[in-house]
């Protein structure tokens, strides 16, 4: 059923936040296909999270899946999730800080609650998870039998870490901040052999941006922004995330990998501007 698994992540444990839908779910499954144990974090849709975890275990490719509920914006819940993971699998090797949301509004109408919610989940959530991961990597120490790195962190950013987004100032600000978080961590913990990178998806077909692909006219509009002329699929991010977590990318740290069908390549200039 699963063709030619690479199993590059055997004996490694990966936490994927926000993994009961969209990109997180695809990343969790991709990690499982490469042999990792996977913690499928969720806050809603427990039945989907459980099914994803079960699917990973059923692959019989070396890893097991478990679902853990935790709100990534809450310190105690993040700490508990890491504790449970260590109890279950011994340690954590890879963090995919993926959970995120939008609360869109014209800026002059944006409430503090809308601003705060997005910053709490998209930025503070990534801080809390990255901090817990780094503490665990340092506690556990090097395992040269499984990886050249002490640990790997992948922040799920967005093309909006560099593309401004009218009507979504809170979201764009949260993703812009991820660049400096990620690069500061790569700089601070490089000497400890921790690799820290981001993935910046373009338009990926998930529930978060349903309005942009639900109708043919919306999809046609969207494709004007994508030189490669197709909307991205969650699995496009899954395969990129797995590669960034393996030793094949061992010299890559402190960088953002744009997975966007060239959306960041000024598509308006395709026909000479
Ligand atoms: P999605 O809505 O399908 O997934 C987001 C997940 O995060 C959901 O499972 C949700 O339950 C979870 N989540 C929200 N708040 C949480 C919290 N407090 N604690 C734990 N989990 C929480 O959307 P998606 O497109 O899969 O988005 C995943 C990530 O990718 C987000 O960070 C998003 O900003 C980013 N992204 C998505 C796109 C895209 O086009 N879909 C583009 C760029 C970046």
Structure description:
It is a single chain. This protein has one domain: Rossmann fold (3-Layer(aba) Sandwich). It contains seven helices and seven strands, in the order βαβαβαβαβαβααβ. A seven-stranded parallel beta sheet has the order 3-2-1-4-5-6-7, sandwiched between helices. It is globular. It starts with 12 loop residues before the first strand and ends in a 14-residue tail after the last strand. The mean pLDDT is 97. The site of nicotinamide-adenine-dinucleotide (NAD) has 27 residues, from α1 and α4.
Please state the structural category. alpha/beta
Return the string of H and E elements: EHEHEHEHEHEHHE
CATH superfamily: NAD(P)-binding Rossmann-like Domain
Number of strands: 7
What order do the strands of the largest sheet run in, or round the barrel if closed? 3-2-1-4-5-6-7
The total domain count is: 1
Name the helicity range: 40-55%
Task: Summarize the helices and strands and which ones pair or pack.
Layout: E1 13-16, H1 22-33, E2 37-42, H2 46-59, E3 65-69, H3 75-89, E4 94-97, H4 112-140, E5 151-156, H5 169-189, E6 194-201, H6 216-223, H7 234-245, E7 256-259
Parallel strand pairs: 1-2, 1-4, 2-3, 4-5, 5-6, 6-7
Bound molecules: nicotinamide-adenine-dinucleotide (NAD).
Nicotinamide-adenine-dinucleotide is lined by residues 17-18, 20-24, 43-44, 71-73, 98-101, 121, 125, 156, 158, 201, 203-204, 206-209.
